Amino acid sequence: MVVRDILDILEGEIICEGDLDQEIKTACGSDMMSDVLAFVKDQSVLLTGLVNPQVVRTAEMMDMACIVFVRGKVPDDSIISLAESRGITLMKTRFRMFTACGLLYSNGLSGGTKV
Amino acid sequence: MSNAIHLHYDVSGEDFTRAGEASGLVKKTLKKLGYNTDAIRRVAIAMYEAEINMVIHAEGGYCDVDIYPDRVEILLADHGPGIPDVDKAMQEGYSTAPDNVRTLGFGAGMGLPNIKKYTDDMRIETTLGVGTNVYLTVVVKA
Questions:
Q1: Which of these, B129, B124, B48, lies nearest to B90 by C-alpha position?
Q2: FRET label pair with B102: which of A25, B1, B17, B89, CA 20 to 30 Å apart?
Q3: Please, are residues A14 and A36 in contact by the beta-carbon 8 Å criterion?
C-alpha cells in the first residue's frame, strides 16, 4: 500500500503533501505519543486525534511518512509547516479512530508488531 | 577520544511545542554522517523522550551529544526537582506528570522505559531539589 491508497481508503483530504507514492507497511493509531514511540515499525502511518506539533516530531523520530488526523481534525499552520519541512504527508479523514483503523486493517495494513 | 563530534543544545522549558528540536537536529546530523537507520532512530527516540521529560518536569536544561564512530553518547542535564524514586519512575505506566501533559500526548509513564529500551546504556544521577543528569549510550553496529 502507498500513501495515496490510504488517502483513497479513508476518503481523506491532503493537508500537506509529501511523497504520495511512498510505500506504507504498517500503521499505528494512538493519541499517546509515548505509546507510538514504544514500538518501532518500518514505513508506518500514524493515525491520531491529537493535534499538536509533537505529533509531527514523533513521526519524524520514527521515520513515519504520513499522519492521518481522524474525525476531520485540522492542524494549525505551525504544525503544517513543521511537517512540510520534514517531508511528511498530513491528511484528514472524517472517520473516527476505530473506523479509520478498521478500514486500513481490512484493506491489508497490519499493526506491525505481534502484540 | 579526540575524534568525537561534539554537539550542545539548550532545551527551553517554556515552550512545549519546541521540545524535540535538539533530537531532530541530532538525527539530521547522524543521517548526514551516514550512520545506519536503526542506530539513528534509537538515538532520536531516546533523546526525544528525555527532552520531553526535561520540558515537562524540569523547566528545560541542556544536552551534550558526543558522536563517535562506534557509539553516540548523550548527557541530558537539568536543574529540576529531581526524581524521588528512580526504580518507580522506570516502571511502565508510572507517571508524575500533571494532567495537562496528558492532553498533549505524553505523561503515560512510558518515557524512561522507552529510553531504556532504545539505548545500550542508561544511567541516572539525581538529587532532590538540585537536578537530574541522564547519561545515554547507543552503540552503533556497522
A1: B124
A2: A25
A3: no
**Rounded percentage of chain B residues whose pLDDT exceeds 90:** 87
Asked if A57 lies within 8 A of B20 by C-beta distance, the reply is yes
CB of B19 closer than 8 Å to CB of B52: yes
Architecture of the domain defined by A3-106: 3-Layer(aba) Sandwich (3.40)
Which CATH number does the domain housing residue B26 bear?
A: 3.30.565.10
Comparing C-alpha atoms, which of A60, A27, A20 is closest to residue A43? A27
ipTM score assigned to the predicted complex: 0.90
Beta strands in chain A (DSSP E): 13-16, 26-29, 44-48, 66-69, 89-92
pTM over 0.95: no
**In total, how many domains does chain B have?**
1
Note whether A38 contacts B117, CB cutoff 8 Å. yes
Considering only CB atoms, B24 lies closest to which of A35, A50, A57, namely A57
